[in-house]
Design brief:
Length: about 240
């Protein structure tokens, strides 16, 4: 006899396109190879001070948090699950997440982490191709450091978001959540209050007070609607 969780896991597998796991695995592997390559490039240049490293890493993580809100808001607000290509792979997980917030905690490693690696690839591959392999200036080293922090935080975002919904979490995760370094269940619960239109940032939520106070996503939505981008017609 199937448990409810097992049944839902089967429904998730059936919903996913058959090609999704292969694309996600390729995306994760390529992301990992490029990240290590960037780390080697950063280490080949002049070393920055510890304080400078910390500041650059914090900026990279904050930018990743903002980007998590930007993508989350866009896919929550525009496009449909039936949109060709983007719909089943990128829009559906956001719709599913409002209908069933615990669904992502049942996703496997590839489904949880693949999409963010895939969306990082255009930036990472461009940098790998065009940026110097051995940065001779401090600016070059800091650029790689910024990308390493940003890219790592982007890739970790779905796992961090999932932990904000998971009842059983490792002690280290609970400590990180309590410290505010990663998104906490209490903070993220604001987004799951209908109509789901605040606190979109889900890496650590550092940018949520600012974007909510400035109503950044409200104005961004008005701008895109004026430019002719159709709002989603389906419910949450
Ligand atoms: Zn949402
Ligand atoms: Zn959530």
């Amino acid at each position: 006899m199937w448990t409810e969780t097992a049944q839902k896991r089967i429904e998730t597998v059936q919903r996913r396109p058959a090609w999704a796991p292969a694309i996600e695995a390729a995306g994760i592997a390529t992301w990992a190879v490029l990240w290590v390559a960037f780390a080697q490039r950063a280490l080949s240049g002049p070393p920055p001070s510890f304080m400078v490293i910390m500041v650059v890493v914090l900026i990279g993580v904050a930018v990743a948090d903002f980007m998590s809100g930007l993508f989350h808001w866009f896919f929550d607000t525009f496009l449909e699950e039936s949109t060709p290509i983007l719909g089943p792979q990128f829009v559906a997980p956001f719709r599913e997440h409002h209908r069933d917030p615990l669904a992502m905690t049942r996703h496997g490693f590839l489904e949880l982490n693949g999409n963010n690696c895939i969306v990082s690839l255009p930036i990472n591959m461009s940098v790998w191709w065009f940026a110097p392999a051995e940065p001779e200036s401090m600016l070059g080293v800091l650029g790689y450091l910024l990308l390493l922090a940003f890219s790592f935080a982007v890739t970790a975002t779905n796992q961090l978001h999932s932990w904000a919904h998971e009842a059983a979490r490792p002690l280290l995760v609970r400590l990180l959540q309590r410290s505010g370094l990663v998104i906490s269940p209490g903070h993220h619960a604001r987004h799951h209050t209908p109509p789901h239109d605040t606190s979109y940032c889900v890496t650590n939520g550092w940018l949520n007070p600012l974007t909510d106070r400035l109503q950044f996503f409200v104005y961004a939505e008005r701008l895109l609607v004026r430019l002719g981008v159709p709002r989603k017609q389906s419910g949450a």
